[in-house]
């Protein structure tokens, strides 16, 4: 019986964290380094004297980020505990001789953002004309004057279960909220806020420490436990805010590259770039009305209020198929940089949902080429047509 042996990359840690550096800071830096190095499909072992300076929650946070740097798994070896070491040696198991690629230092954030406005449409590029970059959009928010501009925050969430079960990071967030309240700072009312801890334990120590009260004052009430906003399960923005963004501002973009299979000329389903994410490929967020998945559920008598999310219906293969490349923020260059789950049916020039185009080509008994991505090296099967 054959077996695939994964390569193992070592990530050496030395020194210790400086005061004020959080687990989130170090894990994003590690992710950036591993993506640049190329850890796709690898086992990444973290080792070195610096490991001893990391707490158990910090190690768990770093290892849990393995999907973000593409590794099959990230792990820390056991510490030098005599009983465990003796066990591993006896069983010949001890080896004696392993959202991130755009992580920007805080001091460089402003200059990086302005560069993004200037860059051409693509990864970290919005191509906003110079004369429009300072544009301010004023609107009415439930009787109150409001305004936003390019880069304004309209959705703020403490949400990733990678971080929200880490005590130091969560308590740190509570202390920031406490300081903000003491300084008289407050979140703008048109910014949608939420807190979704990774476990009930996190909620309890925030309550007992009194920090949840400060988070509540800033609008970060506990909305649920587990992954939510980080995978798109955040609900809709207020209608006035959505209208202001849609009618006046840019959208988020990311890119991905395709290649045709050898010996065949194929129609392109999607023309993206290198930095595709899992959530772009198989979307987990809310199922919007009018999409192929929504139409499918309507056919079976499901009311829109019960559509739920793609992630919530992952057990239904029909919904999962319709959720492929269904992310509203994916940018397809066939549409000249327009964001959304659509593409062009090349033979006719029709603009349709990606799923609908794929089904058209399937009806034509099309072949399936393999696609390879620099930052997501997995085989992605997309339909194409022989000439």
Automatic annotation (TrEMBL):
Coiled-coil ranges from the UniProt annotation: none
Pfam families xrefs: Aconitase, Aconitase_C
Keyword terms: Iron, Iron-sulfur, Metal-binding
Signal sequence, start to end: none
Single Gene Ontology BP annotation: oxoacid metabolic process
Domain Aconitase A/isopropylmalate dehydratase small subunit swivel: 294-363
Cofactor section: [4Fe-4S] cluster
Molecular function as annotated in GO: hydro-lyase activity; iron-sulfur cluster binding; metal ion binding
InterPro entries: Acnase/IPM_dHydase_lsu_aba_1/3 (IPR015931), Acoase/IPM_deHydtase_lsu_aba (IPR001030), Aconitase/3IPM_dehydase_swvl (IPR015928), Aconitase/IRP2 (IPR006249), Aconitase_4Fe-4S_BS (IPR018136), Aconitase_4Fe-4S_dom (IPR036008), AconitaseA/IPMdHydase_ssu_swvl (IPR000573)
Domain annotation Aconitase/3-isopropylmalate dehydratase large subunit alpha/beta/alpha: ranges: 7-90, 97-248
PANTHER family: ACONITASE/IRON-RESPONSIVE ELEMENT FAMILY MEMBER
Similarity field: Belongs to the aconitase/IPM isomerase family.
Protein's recorded name: Putative aconitate hydratase, cytoplasmic
Organism annotation: Zea mays (Maize)
Gene: Os08g0191100_3
